Amino acid sequence: MATTQLIHTVAELRQAVAELHRQDKTVGLVPTMGALHEGHLSLVHACQAKCDATIVTIFVNPTQFGPGEDIDKYPRTLEADMEQLTTAGVDLVFAPAGEEVYREGHVTYVEVGGVAEPLEGVCRPGHFRGVVTVVLKLLNMAGADKAFFGQKDYQQLAVLRQMVRDLDVPTRIEMCPTVREKDGLAMSSRNRYLSPEARQRALILFKGLELAMRLFDEGCRDAHEMVREVTRLVESVEDARIDYVAIVDAETLAPIERISRPVVLALAVKIEDTRLIDNCLLYPMPDQD
Ligand code: AMP
Fold it and tell me: Would you say 214 and 280 are in contact if contact means Cβ atoms under 8 Å apart?
């Protein structure tokens, strides 16, 4: 098995990618904040299937954490991450220090409108500004051909697609399906914060999606009714605090009344002190409306 190289500087990254491109290899990027699980590894596998070389970045990006969100508490498990990425056969891991990404005097940030405004945009002001800025920086540093992101963070994907389109970034953004635990809970680095009891209660997010999909299959096309039913279900769980349950247009993320084109049902719920998000896509057939 080829070894997985761990690098820390932008200069090393650029040099490695230039060499890969000289060899006519396509390069794929998988940006992460580490504390890797099967969800991240599914992005790695998708990247390996579509690109000749796979680069994983591990960086806990300070600019996407809000004032009340404890960045110091975010799990950092570089050694275990490296083990998983080596086993997966990743070519290169880029794990820069904070100062390597945000050099002294950094004052430039990228702000996306439209799709970045509802949902997470309301609950976590400034979050996407941090995400978009760091992802654009990583794309510029790596000059990758494709970059891979999870559907788990659907709005993030929509925001990054918008940014890439608006700023003529030559990297293609690819979406990979959400990977779940056996019982349906979407994998997340934050799941490890949940106590065993809270872990059980956290299943309500997936149950909410299941209910929405069942209602949809039964012919429900009224977004308000569906949101009302899912909200009622989530609220039935003790100590589950809803940030939002929403049905929005899958492309524009604008609110909709009737499900007559592809939509996403997205929810954000706090269980204990852990904020969890999940979503599912609903695609009506044109003749079903
Ligand atoms: P994070 O480390 O949480 O910033 O996530 C890095 C990437 O992994 C993002 O593109 C996420 O959408 C993706 N991701 C996280 N959890 C999952 C999951 N359960 N299934 C698929 N992708 C995921």
Answer: no
Cα-to-centroid distance, 40 and ligand 1 (Å): 5
Question: Which atom of ligand 1 approaches the CA of 36 most closely?
Answer: 2
- Catalytic residue (one of 40, 45, 127, 224): 40
Closest residue by Cα to residue 192 from 270, 274, 124, 268: 274
Q: Are 57 and 29 in contact (CB under 8 A)?
A: yes
> CA 71, CA 68: separation in Å to the nearest integer?
9
For the CA of 34, the nearest atom of ligand 1: 2
pTM given for the model: 0.97
Residues whose beta carbon lies within 6 Å of some atom of ligand 1: 32-33, 39-40, 42-43, 149-150, 152-153, 176, 178-179, 186-189
Residues with Cβ within 8 Å of residue 126, at least 6 apart in sequence: 63, 64, 66
DSSP strand E in the chain: where? Answer: 5-7, 27-32, 53-58, 92-94, 146-150, 172-176, 240-249, 263-271, 274-282
pLDDT of residue 287: 59
pLDDT of residue 139: 98
40 is catalytic: yes
Low-confidence residues of the chain: pLDDT under 50: 288-289
**270-98-175-51 Cα dihedral, nearest 10 degrees:** -150
